[in-house]
Amino acid sequence: MLRPQDTPTRETKILDGLWAFRLDRDGVGDGQGWFRGPLPEAGKMAVPASFNDLMTDAADREFHGDIWYQRSVRIPRRWDAERISLYVSSATHRARVWVDGTYLGSHEGGYLPFELDLGETARPGAEVLVTICVNNTLTFQSIPPGVTEDGVQRYFHDFFNYAGLDRSVLLTATPRERIEDITVVTDIDGPDGLVRASVEAAGEGPLRAVLRDVEGAEVARENGRELELRVPAAHLWAPGDGYLYELTLQLLAPGSDAADDRAAVVDEYRQDVGIRTVEVRGTEFLINGEPFAFTGFGMHEDHAIDGKQHNDALMLRDRAMIDWIGATSVRTSHYPYSEEFMDHADRTGLVVIDETPAVGLNMGLGGGIFGSQGYTTFSPETCNDETQANHAQVIRDLVARDKNRPSVVLWSIANEPESETAAAEEYFRPLFEVAREADPTRTVGFVNVMMAPHGRCRVSAMADVIMLNRYYGWYINTGDLVAAEKGFRAELEAWAGDGKPIIITEYGADTVPGLHQLVPQPWSEEYQIAYMEMCSRVFDGIDAVVGEQVWNFADFMTTSGIMRVGDNKKGVFTRDREPKAVAHWLRTRWTEKLPIAAKG
Ligand code: BDP
């Protein structure tokens, strides 16, 4: 599946705006056929947006079940003889779709796009009724998992279950004979860049590929479905320098000569290409053969009112702060971020650890980190073969969406799953194979939880890079930074013995903005700085530590509980994006002491 775009042969129509909307509180929508005609007793809902914080009633805000969206749309008259489809950028956590009462299909899993062909229901010039029933219920088989107990939805991750159509919905027209998929892999050969592309196309005609630089000058050209383009003296994509070439692919009319500039173009697609390599060598993580140091954050797509809505303005502001503080990288904790965010990362040279929505596969953890959930993680009744199949599909879908992005250097297939048991080992082994088969060119890992330390974790051996979330000085050794430093160093030294690069994907301390203490205690701004100083001393002393990503970029919404006051306050910025004191401290560290390349 290719992302929709406007080219001389393709067109898109964005369906953002107010849609008819109804929460199916009594579960009667299917029986009453709400998809057959105008949605009865409907209100209005913004698309894109998470619906939750637009509600004023607690039960509505927390609603779990079927959520109906509907709008009419006129199919442009000129889209005659085209393939017309609906592209849903994200429906959290699953959706079913009808057009004019005809069922088109469904998709399992939020945060990733899907496309459905309108087939016979697409009548150019006519107005059609699009109905999308989103369902946000989490079960032991969904990714992420959850369970309904006495009518109440529980889940095992520490962020609010925002849901709905939180990214754009598009209507698209593509030629029936068309380019269907592109896989780009790049390499470096001396001063030259190599761009290998493999193209799938439905159509008999020849395929022409032209690569241009940012000025639009042609740098390479080749014909065929398996391409290797050589770029003399290539401008590489590098951290902080998101240089992109543009590959224009043209499927030509059958029988035409690809060398003939006047040959009829049946379909055209543009693909951004960043030329770079990624490799793990010993304990180093290399980008273009140079050791790279990850600085930055685990983040959330999270804002007041619109929840997980993608919003260009808010994204740009977040990115401005990421640059201001000198961060080189982010992890898309704990689900794939919007395609617009990823585009911007590609364009600006932000390095991304791309994570699946597999968070909370660990019944030994509470919503945050304490307590147990009273279930066994992996069992026929809980996370089972069906969960694993969904997990595999999500890995394939994520790779399919982001495989051509130069910003993505490492796939994270799960956050803090149970990893110390034989059942976990059995669950994860095939999933690593799925990831490596889907993308043999990038590194693969998962994020390890502190309950599965070195020597006990049975999954880390499968990973190319060790990613660790650690809270010495917060969840353990709370307030005792001396003991915390000792414990943290000892554990990291043990991991370093494995000879792989280590990225600390989470470390952080909840901090109430404005709470000051001369003698720093947990929750104060001073403690957050003292805590970061301690962690940094530990990282700087261990060569295998090639990355530090603070938890979290900004305060973010969670479920209610005794562990959180209003929200999770581990942000370096507040939820409304103002700096806590630690932001200035980190800025100095990342811009003056650890500028972009590796230590030393
Ligand atoms: C880790 C989780 C993260 C939580 C964080 C915390 O990976 O999602 O928000 O702890 O407790 O366990 O703040």
Question: How is this structure best described in words?
Answer:
With 600 residues, this protein is α/β, with parallel strands linked by helices. The chain has 3 domains: 11-174, Jelly Rolls (Sandwich), CATH 2.60.120; 178-276, Immunoglobulins (Immunoglobulin-like), CATH 2.60.40; 295-593, Alpha-Beta Barrel (TIM Barrel), CATH 3.20.20.80. The protein has helices at 58-61, 312-324, 339-348, 385-402, 422-438, 481-496, 525-540, 581-593, and strands at 11-14, 17-23, 43-47, 66-74, 83-88, 94-99, 102-108, 114-117, 127-135, 146-149, 152-155, 169-174, 178-189, 192-202, 207-212, 218-223, 226-231, 245-252, 265-273, 278-281, 284-287, 290-291, 294-298, 329-331, 351-355, 408-415, 443-448, 466-469, 502-506, 545-551. The strands form 7 sheets. An 8-stranded parallel beta barrel has the order 23-24-25-26-27-28-29-30, surrounded by 4 helices. Strands 3-2-4-9-6-7 form a 6-stranded antiparallel beta sheet, with no helix packed on it. A 4-stranded antiparallel beta sheet has the order 1-12-5-8, with no helix packed on it. Strand 15 and strand 16 (218-223) form a beta hairpin. Helix 4 runs parallel beside helix 5, helix 6 runs parallel beside helix 7 (525-540) and helix 7 packs parallel to helix 8 (581-593).
